[in-house]
Amino acid sequence: MGIENVKWEYYYPKKDYTRLKERLIRMNLGFTESISGVNRTLIHARVLYRSYFGDKVDTGMGFHLVSMVKRDIDVLFADKEVPVRNIDYKEQYFNIASLERFTGGIAIAIDITDCYWTVAFRLGYITERTYIMGKRKGKAWKIGRVASIGSLAKRKVTKYYENGEEIKERRLIESMPMKYQYARHNIIGKVYDMFSQLEKEVGNGFLMYLTDCVFIEPRNYRYAKKFFSDYGYQTKDSHCQILGVDKEKKVVHWFEFPKAKDKEGKEYVGGGNKYYQYSTNQCLFNVCDTKVDRKEIII
């Protein structure tokens, strides 16, 4: 059953959505489920159920920016091709040797403000109007700005169930048009190129980066700040303690210090123990066990 035949639509918290799906399976009923990124929709008996995260549906998160970005790409590249770039980048990057050496030390995390959104504008994938519109609601639309870039290369998987079982032969996988995928690869790749250049200039003081945030030793902080400033990016800082690297399980552990107090100024919020399970191809030089000798820059 397609969405055009839907009569009613409901929003369910993720846990209730999961329970609904499990109940339909136990009752041997038929339904259709679509999965795209973190989005889940289920159609049963002409009723559409949408899954959402959190305690309530928030329609003010800026998800309308997803369609605005795609429309911009359609218009801006109507008579020319989007530059081809494949996945030759990493979205997370770890200098295992430096993380081990710096275990117990206090690192500085430098986060680029609206990184992907800004790069998308600078590379000409969104118009100035869209760029300004997207920043209008600040943090309230942050998820929408991030989702608009991520959605350019997402896949949609549609599963069909009958008598409580998936008919795997009917599973449908749909990818976005290549022009959208190339746009995303160029945006993420540009960030990767910039972080790789910083690593080359800083050397062993470069610990890791996650998406749009670089973790660096304090002795290289001023150099890194000037580096991003020269690129024209605004940044914000936080501190963390590197707790160690478990090479056997390939996990990096760190403690993130609380960034701010709550609205009443009474208790600190945020922070806590963090970890990331890395893969070999996310390691500096693609080698996780060999110590490296890089130049040191202290400014």
* Radius of gyration based on Cα positions: 22 Å
Give the end-to-end Cα distance, rounded to a whole number of Å.
63 Å
Task: Please write the string of helix (H) and strand (E) elements.
Answer: EHEEEHEHEHHHEEEHEEHEEEEE
Largest sheet: 7 strands, mixed
- The number of helical elements comes to 8
- Overall pLDDT level: 89
How would the global form be characterised? globular
- Indicate the low-confidence ranges by residue numbers: 286-299
Proportion of residues in extended strands: 25-35%
Task: Walk me through the structure.
- The chain is of the alpha+beta class.
- It contains eight helices and 16 strands.
- It has helices at 14-26, 65-76, 96-101, 115-122, 128-135, 142-150, 178-202, 221-231, and strands spanning 8-13, 31-36, 39-44, 47-52, 92-94, 106-112, 155-162, 165-166, 172-175, 206-210, 213-216, 235-246, 251-256, 260-261, 268-269, 272-277.
- The strands form three sheets. Strands 1, 2, 3, 4, 7, 8 and 9 form a seven-stranded mixed β-sheet that branches. Strands 5-10-11-6-12-13-16 form a seven-stranded antiparallel β-sheet.
- A hairpin with a 4-residue loop joins strand 12 and strand 13.
- Helix 2 (65-76) packs across helix 6 and helix 4 (115-122) crosses helix 7.
- The radius of gyration is 22 Å and the shape is globular.
